[in-house]
Amino acid sequence: LTPEKIQKSNERIAEALFNAAKIYKEKLNDYQKAVSTYEILINRFPEHENIIIAYYDLYLIFSSLQNIEKANIYKNLIMVKFPSSNYVKILSNPNYFEDLEKERLKIEEFYTQTYDLFSAGQYQQVLQNCEIALNTYKDSYLLPNFAFLKAVASGKLSNQIALKSYLSDFINNYPDAEITSTAKDIISRIEEQELA
């Protein structure tokens, strides 16, 4: 066997172990087999791409079995080896998902308020809100929407040439955002007006 074939074979074995452990845990509720399969994975393939999930599942299994000592071993492995992961946030804050949902609703409400201001022609306030959002909610899925409102509000306070420039910058910064097609449409309309 060539080194490439051995590596490919090992990748398949690791993936099979991971999938088998998941099935034992989630579909069959056979925690003993899940634990032993995850432990084989961890011992044979400690660098596997899903090792953090294996650690977390082992933490959950041992927690549910009230084996706090073993649960803490896997909790600590996650905290030490993956300090910036969402798993650490979950382990550190039992209300993590509820807090995340509250934050999402807060951002959506702020976006709705900002959009309402935009619809009412209060562009200065829109710019202020967008600056707050762009600096505060950097991970929000609504970030491109705030950036778009900022570009259009800036253009509304200026002229068509500036609007076109702001929208071009927006498109360059958010080429894959859903709202980018709207920005392109507005630029097309501006260019049609320039030709007329």
Helix content: over 70%
**How far do the termini sit from each other?**
70 Å
Estimated radius of gyration: 25 Å
Q: What is the number of E strands?
A: 0
Write down the overall mean pLDDT. Answer: 93
Q: Specify the number of helices.
A: 10
Which strand-content bin applies to the residues?
Answer: under 5%
Structural class: mainly alpha
Biggest sheet, in brief? none
Q: pLDDT under 50 segments (min length 5)?
A: none
Assembly form of the protein: single chain
Morphology: elongated
Order of helices and strands: HHHHHHHHHH
Explain what you see.
- The chain has 196 residues and is mainly α.
- It is elongated, with a radius of gyration of 25 Å.
- It is built from 10 helices and no strands.
- Helix 2 (31-44) packs antiparallel against helix 3 and helix 7 packs antiparallel against helix 8 (143-156).
Main features:
80% helix, elongated, mainly alpha, 196 residues, 0% strand, single chain
Fold blueprint:
Blueprint: H1 3-27, H2 31-44, H3 51-64, H4 68-81, H5 86-92, H6 96-119, H7 123-136, H8 143-156, H9 160-173, H10 180-195
Helix pairs in contact: 1-2, 2-3, 3-4, 6-7, 6-8, 7-8, 8-9, 9-10
